[in-house]
Design goal:
329 residues; UDP-N-acetylmuramoyl-L-alanine:D-glutamate ligase; nine-stranded mixed β-sheet; alpha/beta; four-stranded mixed β-sheet; globular; 13 strands; 10 helices
Length: 329
């Protein structure tokens, strides 16, 4: 029988570096009772506004919620939203030592307009161009210094295609992690998909898998998904490819064989942030010595739990532990 309590207790001693695109998740909540006379659109009577940490910062929040110490590394703008972001980092007791600000960039802000439990609209303000050469070198120097000065148990690349992660950053960090024997995990997007060579775990969702490989894959066939995952394992020298499949669960491949974990029945309220939770849980389970099929199963449970909540929220460690004991022990 698996002692999940012992494994989850190990999380408290782990430090995970998170490199990637951070953002402010802003929410406007309210009710809709009529349609605008100016255009056929609903009128939202705004009742509440809120800002939350998003993107790679949500991965850091998930790691923190699970008991680990996150070390967040990213670049924001020199604007009011950056000030709000830094203030939220402080309020959440997250370190700012890995953060850089640069006036050439906007701080990514996603504003979601929600009526009751219905997501009506999202407004994005962002810079998506890659870091310029000087900023790229300054950012890596900061990451390199932190890796040299801290005991890092894992590194997560949280890529939202906003430009903080570049091919050079990937290559430099993965090489440094390899020298120091630090596992590297990736939550990819389209732009850098094929750049993540020699990483430990690569976690695309199904859409990202098809777009990244430029292939049509039959989602109903685990064998077809495994064949696509094998290309990641072999062509990119990735140890584990873990593909999230929403209603079909998760498939994980080591290049020779695969394990498929079916999805749990859930009352899905909002899928926002589920991928952040999955990569966070996977990094800690892998660092704690868990076998890869079980890593996939625990991460799958965690992703399902956060989908029951509206908005981007970190996973609840106590609830996840209870689910693991009930369904996987």
């Amino acid at each position: 029988m698996i002692n999940f309590q012992h494994i989850f207790d190990k999380f408290d001693a782990l430090t995970v570096m998170v490199i990637g695109d951070v953002m402010v998740d802003a929410y406007t909540w309210g009710e809709v009772s009529r349609i605008s006379p100016e255009a056929p659109v609903p009128i939202l009577a705004s009742a509440q506004r809120e800002r939350r940490l998003g993107g790679a910062a949500n991965v850091a929040l998930n790691l923190q919620a699970l008991g680990a110490t996150p070390l967040l590394c990213s670049v924001v703008g020199n604007d009011s939203e950056a000030g709000a972001f830094m203030k939220m980092l402080g309020a959440s007791r997250l370190s700012q030592v890995g953060m850089l600000a640069d006036s050439s960039r906007l701080t990514t802000t996603k504003t979601r307009v929600i009526a009751g439990a219905q997501h009506l609209l999202r407004i994005d303000e962002e810079t998506t161009k890659p870091l310029h050469e000087g900023l790229e070198k300054a950012f890596f120097a900061q990451v390199e210094q932190l890796i040299a000065g801290e005991k890092i148990d894992a590194i997560i690349f949280e890529d939202y295609d906003k430009g903080v992660i570049t091919p050079n950053i990937i290559r430099w960090v993965v090489n440094l992690a390899g020298i120091r024997k630090i596992p590297t995990l990736v939550d990819p997007k389209k732009r850098n998909f094929l750049e993540y060579r020699n990483v430990t775990l690569f976690k695309p969702n199904f859409k990202e898998l098809c777009e990244g490989l430029k292939e049509d894959v039959d989602k109903k066939s685990y064998d077809a998904i495994f064949a696509a995952a094998q290309k990641i394992n072999r062509q990119m020298n990735v140890r584990y490819a873990m593909v999230t499949l929403s209603e079909r669960g998760v498939l994980v491949s080591d290049g020779e064989q695969y394990a498929a974990v079916p999805a749990e029945r859930r009352n899905i309220a909002d899928v926002s942030g589920a991928g952040d939770t999955v990569i966070s849980v996977a990094s800690l389970c892998l660092s704690a010595g868990m076998a890869i099929p079980l890593v996939a199963a625990v991460a799958n449970l965690a992703g399902g739990l956060v989908c029951e909540k509206v908005g981007v929220v970190p996973v609840n460690k106590k609830l996840l532990l209870e689910e693991c004991i009930k369904k996987l022990a």
